[in-house]
Amino acid sequence: MPPPYTPPISMNTEPSVICRVCQQLIYIKGREHQRVVKCANCQEATPIKAPPAGKKYIRCPCNALLTCKVSSVRISCPRVNCKRIINLAAPPMLPPAATIPSMARSQFRVTCGHCNEIFVFHTTSHLARCPHCRRISSVGPNFARTRATIFAVIGFIFLAAGVGVTVGTLDLARDSGGIYVVWIGAFVAGILNLIRSCYYCTMTVSSIEGEP
């Protein structure tokens, strides 16, 4: 005998989503236009559409679904039995647009210290080549003075180190000729830095119009 006829189990084809809290199936037929739907099992909301522009969804530890601004860093749960303060991660900061310092954009009228002609220069702390006589000068005295001081200090440090090494290794130099190279290197470096310092000390200075 053939087995008795059993009608096939009909499959529910209604649109549905999974509850984000209790994982139960939520049928959303007729509610597709909504942004969130409420679960009949746990009574919590589950989003089915993206939040409005400039907003985001946050799930409170009490399972309440909250909507806040994208830029929000702290929100409060409105539920009476919760009232939890939720600290959110700060939104990523966009790097500021590249800006040019105002000093770099500024231009100054400079009187050449060599030919007394006037030309335009873009900064006040650098060397400038006059477009008229093609000679180099310091725009204002500060740049040349600073460079002269730096090279003088470095030069004296090398000379002092050379003297110290010479005195300390005088006996060893008789047995090892390579120590003479160290002596010569220290003294040469010191002398070259002092020469560079003298170059900046004697450099012609071009004045900026409007400065005393």
TrEMBL record:
Subcellular location: Late endosome membrane; Lysosome membrane
Topology in membrane: Multi-pass membrane protein
Gene Ontology cellular-component terms listed: late endosome membrane; lysosomal membrane; phagocytic vesicle membrane; plasma membrane
Source domain of life: Eukaryota
Biological process terms in GO annotation: phosphatidylinositol dephosphorylation
Keyword list, A-Z: Endosome, Hydrolase, Lysosome, Membrane, Transmembrane, Transmembrane helix
Assigned EC number: 3.1.3.78
GO MF annotation, one: phosphatidylinositol-4,5-bisphosphate 4-phosphatase activity
Major localization listed first in the record, in broad terms: membrane
Electron transport as UniProt keyword: no
Coiled coil: none
PANTHER family on file: PHOSPHATIDYLINOSITOL-4,5-BISPHOSPHATE 4-PHOSPHATASE
Task performed by this protein: Catalyzes the hydrolysis of phosphatidylinositol-4,5-bisphosphate (PtdIns-4,5-P2) to phosphatidylinositol-4-phosphate (PtdIns-4-P).
Protein's name according to its UniProt entry: Phosphatidylinositol-4,5-bisphosphate 4-phosphatase
Organism: Pocillopora damicornis (Cauliflower coral)
